[in-house]
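The instructor's notes for this session suggest beginning with a concrete chain rather than abstract definitions. Hand out the sequence below and ask the class to guess, before any prediction is shown, which regions might be ordered.
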Amino acid sequence: MRRFSRRQFCWYAAGLASCSTAGTVFGESMRGEYPLVAATDHERILRAADHYLGEPPATITAMHSDRSPGGVHDFYSEGDYWWPDPKNPQGPYVRRDGFSNPANFNAHREAMIRLSQIVPALTAAWLLTHQKKYADHAGKHLDAWFVTAATRMNPNLEYAQAIFGVSKGRGIGIIDTLHLVEVARAATLLANASALNNSREVRRWFADYLEWMRTSKNGQEERDAENNHGTCWVLQAAEFARFTGSDEVVQWCRERFRTVLVPKQIAPDGSLPLELARTKPYSYSLFDMDVLCAIAQSTATRGDSLWSFSTPDGRGLRKMMEFMTPFIADKERWPYAHDVEHWEDLPVRNPALLFAGIAYDQAGYLELWKRLNPDPAVPEVIRNFPIRQPLLWIS
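After discussion, reveal the predicted structure:
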């Protein structure tokens, strides 16, 4: 893959940031992939960020469900695939895997997804232009969610993915804060460049939430989940630990990847059997693929890269990408059952293609990534697409 010098980087980024300023953010380790992503997403990033400059913060305190057992500062959501029982309409809900119930309370999740769209886009625009207005507005949203007493969210998910008549909140609900991963990534970049006011308080919120994830009953249940839920727990823990400076947790996540995630989730042929067993096998395979690759991207150091790891029988990210990429390029080749919902809305611009294309020097992956849709509009697709600003992940 072609690499770029600092001079080429500054030219490629269209002159929007000076070389000296760019160096203060990215240091001397800038690599060729940054200008590739910057050039591909330049107009898209600025268009979104300029729109979001007019969007005020709105946290979970602005909406509340009467069914929530928590207070105004407690995140609450209801399990997607749970419905009233036709045989007992007033009784406990029953599960219909793959079919989302539109009547369930979803406002807190929608607010968090909104945050996950706004803050990364503003931060990406700040990286491109170094205009203070983008960083300042991202900071306003971070303050509202994690600092300001009247509007902040409590750092736990005790009441996430509740089920009417069954559970007040489940460990499985921790997947809802997957949409904070790119928010934490953005906050890290802003804080490290001294562009984020109240960075200490924002870091404290994520440190508290990470501790809850690691020590609570719900958190430990989700950590031990064997499918994409366990994968999402590790990505969250890794990125939140990276933001808060917990090297011990980052190292634990690397070991979890090697000893649990890859051996239990990736088959020797590269497929993801636990996701193939679901009613939306294509969507869930793409989703788990993205999160597994994001863990490698999040935790990579010069001396410890998960991209090259494989088990003795060949399980690893390289084999997974070799298996999945042909079905992204042409999903009609997919030999398994079609998803019960949103088959026609996939694939989108999977970040795994970008990250793996860089790691394995696969130009075909990068070309495929560039031509896919980066901004899906279907809510269910957005929910399973938590990394939307890959510029933040390349430095």
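Then share the key points. The first helix runs from residue 6 to 12. Strands lie at 76-78, 82-83, 94-95, 159-162.
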